[in-house]
Amino acid sequence: MIKRIFAASALAVSVAFAGGAVGTAGNFDGMAVASAATADEQFTGNWYDANGNFVVSIQPGVINSCRIVRTYDVKEGTPGSGHFVILEANGEHDLFIEWEGGDWQNNNYVEPHITLNHGQKLTRK
After folding, report:
1. 6: alpha, beta or left, given left = phi > 0 and alpha = psi -120 to 50?
2. Residue 2 three-state SS
3. Residue 99 neighbours by CB distance under 10 Å
């Protein structure tokens, strides 16, 4: 049950690095939401918790097969964060996603990871 609730919350999350729905009128820092859908492919894909359980799938314009209808308060770059509103069967759901990694810091590669709604760190492994 908890896993299902967490997955539903994750569903409402959007990812600035992979979020944004084509055809929405949203805008952040002069960047159209639609262009955010392809901003950082390193953050698209399936994400898992520390136990290896699937939590969320993020693809351009969708989270867990739900369309991202708008984004707000997006801080681009790494680390970055933002709110992503997805359209679920029972209405809109707002997810706060933070991301980091996918780059080199102090001669060390930092694996990409995300957090949903201030929860645990998720990885793609």
Report:
1. alpha
2. helix
3. 25
Tokens of 23: 């055809």
Q: How far apart are CA 115 and CA 74, in angstroms?
A: 14
Bond preceding residue 60 cis, omega within 30 of 0: no
Where does 13-125 have alpha helices with state H? 33-36
Give the CA distances from residue 113 to residues 22, 41, 50, 92, in Å, rounded to whole numbers and listed in that order: 25, 13, 11, 25
CB 31 within 8 A of CB 40: no
- Between the two ends of the chain, the Cα-to-Cα distance in Å is 23
56-79 residue pLDDT tens:
999 988 999 999 999 999 888 888
